[in-house]
Amino acid sequence: MTEKKSLPNRRSFLETSGKFSAGAMTAGMIAGGLFTGSSAMAHTARDPKKKLGVALVGLGSLSTKQIAPALQKTAHCRLAGIVSGTPEKRKKWATQYDLPESSIYDYESFDKIADNGDIDIVYVVLPNSMHAEYTIRAAKAGKHVFCEKPMATSSEDCRKMINACREAGKKLGIGYRCQFEPHHLECMKLAADKTFGDLKHITAGFGFKSGDPKQWRLNKELAGGGPLMDVGIYALQAYRYLADGEPEAISAMEIKTDPVKFAQVEETLNWSMKIGKVSCSCQTSYGFNGINGFHAYGTNGHFGLKPAFNYSGIKGTSSKGPITFPQADHFQLELDDFAQCVKNDTPTKVPGEEGLRDMLIIEAIYKSAATGKTVTPVAFQ
Amino acid sequence: MTEKKSLPNRRSFLETSGKFSAGAMTAGMIAGGLFTGSSAMAHTARDPKKKLGVALVGLGSLSTKQIAPALQKTAHCRLAGIVSGTPEKRKKWATQYDLPESSIYDYESFDKIADNGDIDIVYVVLPNSMHAEYTIRAAKAGKHVFCEKPMATSSEDCRKMINACREAGKKLGIGYRCQFEPHHLECMKLAADKTFGDLKHITAGFGFKSGDPKQWRLNKELAGGGPLMDVGIYALQAYRYLADGEPEAISAMEIKTDPVKFAQVEETLNWSMKIGKVSCSCQTSYGFNGINGFHAYGTNGHFGLKPAFNYSGIKGTSSKGPITFPQADHFQLELDDFAQCVKNDTPTKVPGEEGLRDMLIIEAIYKSAATGKTVTPVAFQ
Questions:
Q1: Among the four given CATH numbers 2.60.120.10, 3.10.20.600, 3.40.50.720, 3.40.50.2300, the one describing domain B34-178
Q2: Which CATH superfamily is domain A183-326+356-380 in?
Q3: Residue A202: what are its φ and ψ, rounded to 5°?
Q4: Which of A349, B191, B258, B313 could, after both became Cys, cross-link B242 (CB 3.0–4.6 A)?
Q5: Which of B196, B274, B281 is the best substitution to test chain A (most A C-beta atoms within 10 A)?
Q6: Rounded distance between C-alpha atoms, residue B282 and residue B273, angstroms
Q7: What ipTM, to 2 d.p.?
Q8: Which of B289, B367, B373 is the mutation pick for testing A, counting most A CBs within 10 A?
Q9: pLDDT by residue (tens digit) across B272-320?
């Protein structure tokens, strides 16, 4: 059995989980009642009205500025614990969020979280190369796991993470926040409904000019790769959830203009792919600012978002006019969705298999760039 | 001696001809006094105030709707003759533009243009595969030649055309109209002046949804290729005149979704290139509308045009605000420039060598797409 067959595709997930209607979803979100499932088969949380406890592993910028504030707004989960190697951070967070001493861990004591009934979900927000270890340890501790993108730094690790959660009977979700954002959902709907005809081509890119040359993102051991793993993955995701299928061919080119700063990871990467009858051309870079969006071209018009991948300020345009929805907190949306999937034992639309699929494609992109040859499906199954 | 060394690059042409200052040029154009050279070394035209006579070869849509009207506005040349295989067209044009019988030719009688002292320049506006023959015949008839893009359908033909004009001691210019357009000139200046820092990446694309499946553009024998030759060449040009150098590597992917309509030429092509420290990702297609522009990303900001390649309505944006110039008639500009180059015996900035260079790159793009391998400089010298 090939990998292709063993991984359900994105749309089949959406259809299974009945969550593809962007219109309905958006209306729900605007009303604040997002995904209020009718089932109350809560396995982890006995009381379906109870907010599930989330422990954040890694208290860097993303946790500090985005995720912790989002967890103050979530309806179905709440910040209930932290894991950090820095005593000052632990102390500061404990005070700021009124966390009990029993829910505060360092990396050595982390496995004791197994005994903490107040923690239902562990959200892994560590450097990429640490995602696998902490996801597996969390699963072994009997916790559901939500893990930031990229899921890991290799498809091998992704498979280990999926297996660990499966063996533990716990859910695994990947932090693909845009899959919950109203403008992105509308674009998925426009693609699926063929509002602009059959899609033919998608341009997508995300990059920024990286600062500190000593940051972990430029360290291959910690980051696994460069901008492709970090932000290019958003362009890859956008293409995949619009074209909705399996890449049949991938052609990539890497461009390095600063071999000192980018000694370990790529600086800029272009790649083209083909999924069915929809091609794409994508870029990612740590070398410059300004690329942040996608545009989809169909037989009867075109649409897209720019900027598409920021935490807020998403703007949509189309050949029929602007695409406008209220701005939303992406982390609030993804966490409330995952919490409800846990409560109701329904599948998440961003499972580990979705992260694995991206990682297989990322590996194929790197392979194409390294060899200067088009990579065909056989190579990334 | 390699091809690379034998072809002067674009900027060296600009510098030689002293026409790189977009600001000065634009000011001149706005004042209506574009390129009033101080030299009066007119070889062809004894009276420098005389408008040079232009004969149009091929009276299709481009000649009818754009070039003939432009020749009513030019200061340095005028419509003086026509070449067409269709008696009705010849009659209609003769009446409409008050052309003498002695300046009207069909394809058989065309060579007699050698005896027509009223014709200085032959403008070849035929299907691509006929450019070489009529350029060479015009040169042999002792006329300067202006030829529509793409210059020909092979680099071999481009070389023959260059040689024919060289042997005849006549000028050869290629219809790269955007190189005369104020917004494009401003972008060249922004790139050269490093207004947005060192350029790092350029995205560029041009395509449209082609209609009639029986049109010559889909016939490989007449067109030479598909959208890359026809409109993708604008994206290629934009990249080249912003990055200003020789491609070191080219990676391309072709995508065909309608193998019946596009049996002979490509439907969609993506390509990436690297010139020095500036990469690009480009697209062209006959399969969909909406891609028409470029955007250049530098270390301190970004700028671009969208739409960039239409005959009018060019719009510019940048991270510092809009790029706005009066709309101009691109054909009027390119023809007045070429006429002055002829009058003053100065080099055109769009010589046959510029067309040859594009053709070499186009051949490399096709080769990369066909082989699925990155093409390096050796392969297109």
A1: 3.40.50.720
A2: Dihydrodipicolinate Reductase; domain 2 (3.30.360.10)
A3: -135, 130
A4: B191
A5: B281
A6: 8
A7: 0.85
A8: B289
A9: 999 999 999 999 999 999 999 999 999 999 999 999 999 999 999 999 9
